[in-house]
Amino acid sequence: MFERYSITLDQAERQYLLKKSTNGATRSTTEHGCLDILNDCPKTLASVRECLDLYVEKPERFNFYLVKSWGTFLPKDGMGETVVHNHAYAHLSFVIYLQKDEKGGNPIFVENNIRKPFHVEEGQLIIFPAWVPHCIEPNESTTQRYSVAGDILMVLKDQYADVNFLTPVETWLCL
Fold first, then answer.
1. Listing from the earlier edge strand, what are the strands of the sheet with 107-111?
2. CATH assignment of the domain containing 89
3. pLDDT per residue over 133-166, tens digit each?
């Protein structure tokens, strides 16, 4: 359900994402309406797609849509814990860890009111079902923790392939 993958980021895109992740906000680029931080990072998006192909059973049946992406950072020295939340409007969520050390800032997944820390390292990408409640533990390190996250919709390529997923966008009607 929760998978981690090691990825190698293009250095220019990594620097762009680190800079854009702070860009005047106190914790997240969502504070000033930046919900498309990955749109100008084609190499990073290609890495996300490669990981989706490994994570999803029969990925060839789907088109994957990145519906939101944002940067977050946690201040150093025990700051920055987030509240438990989910992204129920999407199918999958992912997080790429741009800068992180061993002392905290890990995601915590909540199942049956039990908090389950999930250890991640710098340079890793995790994917998980978007409906799963989660939060981030405080960052106990002496450096800030930077990450980029996103939400994915999975849309079938063939409208008759599976009744449990969204049909192709071309079959939708705007009311």
1. 114-117, 107-111, 134-136
2. 2.60.120.620
3. 999 988 888 888 899 999 999 999 987 777 788 8
